[in-house]
Amino acid sequence: MTAPAALADAPLLRAARGLPAWRVPVWFMRQAGRSLPEYRALRGDGSILDAIGDPATSAEITLQPVRRYGVDAAILFSDIVVPAAAIGFGVDVVPGIGPVVTDPFRTKADLARLRPYEPAIDAPYVQDTVRLVVDELGATTPLIGFAGAPFTVASYLIEGRPSRTYGLTKAMMHAEPDLWRELLDRLADMAIASLLAQIDAGASAIQLFDSWAGALPPDVYEDLVMPASAKVFAAIEATGVPRIHFGVGTGELLTLMGDAGADVVGVDWRVPLDIARARVPGKAVQGNLDPAICLAPWPVVAERTRDVLLRNAGRPGHIFNLGHGVTPDLDPGILKAVVDLVHEEGRTDG
Amino acid sequence: MTAPAALADAPLLRAARGLPAWRVPVWFMRQAGRSLPEYRALRGDGSILDAIGDPATSAEITLQPVRRYGVDAAILFSDIVVPAAAIGFGVDVVPGIGPVVTDPFRTKADLARLRPYEPAIDAPYVQDTVRLVVDELGATTPLIGFAGAPFTVASYLIEGRPSRTYGLTKAMMHAEPDLWRELLDRLADMAIASLLAQIDAGASAIQLFDSWAGALPPDVYEDLVMPASAKVFAAIEATGVPRIHFGVGTGELLTLMGDAGADVVGVDWRVPLDIARARVPGKAVQGNLDPAICLAPWPVVAERTRDVLLRNAGRPGHIFNLGHGVTPDLDPGILKAVVDLVHEEGRTDG
User: Fold this and answer.
1) Is B72 helix (H, G, I), strand (E, B) or coil?
2) For chain B, what is the domain count?
3) What pTM does this model have?
4) What is the ipTM of this complex?
5) A343 in a structural domain
6) What pLDDT digit, counting tens, does each position of A253-262 carry?
7) Which of B279, B289, B295, B326 is the best substitution to test chain A (most A C-beta atoms within 10 A)?
8) Gap between the Cα atoms of A137 and A204, Å rounded
């Protein structure tokens, strides 16, 4: 088969809908970022939020990995705290640490600091970036819009900085469920506004990042997290763009994350892809090469890449990706070789 | 029922064998440690390895939580790098960081630095501590012996310090499988020697800590990790003491971790206990309260504690524990209340 001329026929969009595609689509979470020398050259040492706030820079960063790797999608260069930062909640992304909140969300009074997010006013640079990227990508490569899921954004706002245990977040979820639900509802509205603006500007798929949802047991996720994520997916449904739902360490949550309203469920490397597919019947899957394995020599990476393809057994509805984001220490040459291998050997006829 | 007079009838040992007990046994991983003021008063600022090297101090630390909480077992105060440190591999435990290795294990030449561990010569203080503790505990409370599993110890020796991705470890596993297997075999022998010495001195159960095995997918675990852990369990079998196997994030590995030869499989909080039991047929289970939830007010902790008991439905073969270790910020009063609740409401008649 040959490359189609229409965006709707792009492998990523067809796979996301569970349809056969002319090749297995592949992209990498955090493909735009510190592993690329051209990114480091462009970014320098400033805050990532400054780079995101500059459409020319941000569009260029978004496009760099598409050029280098020939991946089947761009993903908007962004950060899950962009909307919260844009409404002035007081959050920055500190190099070497991650999101840091000056005054973390701790009580009901903090709700007043979470006013509705108005993308066109609060962060017009996001739509500008999307437009620049979509223009440049042309008719065959989709741009994936980007938003943080309510739980994961809330965990940053509450903990104040990256956490390994989410103790303050879990305490609030259980001790003050009404406050928690209100917080998540507001963050859901924020994600909805952000995603709709990105779609309006030309994004043709979206990914909701609930990176740390895997810290929760299924009953807690279902009761206190899933409703807010489901609200986001439901609000996007009318646009018709495919919805990807991602988290790490989510083996026990895969079914629920699909049921929340995703078309595609992300799978990290802990769950073999054949087993993951059985947990999300009727959904497409995205994953699931271990990013850490990409530090090994190429024959090892090739073997593990083939293992992922083999476990999918050529079924339609597979978007090849890493199980988590590209880490800064990965060799772009290895990632390029993964893309080529998936394109050469992947098939969607099974 | 009332407390039995013989150690073999201790609830923990009966539960570990899948037998009904007069109460549901409970203990906490890392129950001896920084969450206890009496521990901080005793320890001061020295290296944990110095405290472990002093039998009087180490025995006292091991006993502190038994006195305070009334838990059903003591666990030897130790660290998974104790044998490697004792043979002079060059590893220390740095406060606020964790195990740090001066010259990490990187090539075949490093095997020469891993000579056999001889507990009576290299670390006589371990057996001395065990004897002091067992004397003090008397006839009704068992002491659980402690060893790091080959994979998790190897990850520290290779990475050189705590890692989130285990990239160097995974690269070696796959790129140099012969070297990796030899390394794990030596670490298995080290764990065996350590555990047999502890049992010889009076430990009446053992736990093999493979804390980070959950970073691996099942096929990799089965091929490159499980054989070494199975060697450890097989070597302990003849002693007749129950064998507990623990890791975190191991939902996909539970069956294999049981099949490695454990009598009891540890379960973190991500897998509901009823589902976990189905994955380890014929085995006892240990867990699975989320330690982070213990930062919440007591009614929340009580509800989640009852949920664990409810999911076990009174079946014999449940050792109540946290899903991971006690963190320094936990209130000992909450943990004491958990012990009391489990003892009051837990049952093993279902």
Assistant:
1) coil
2) 1
3) 0.96
4) 0.95
5) no
6) 999 999 999 9
7) B295
8) 12
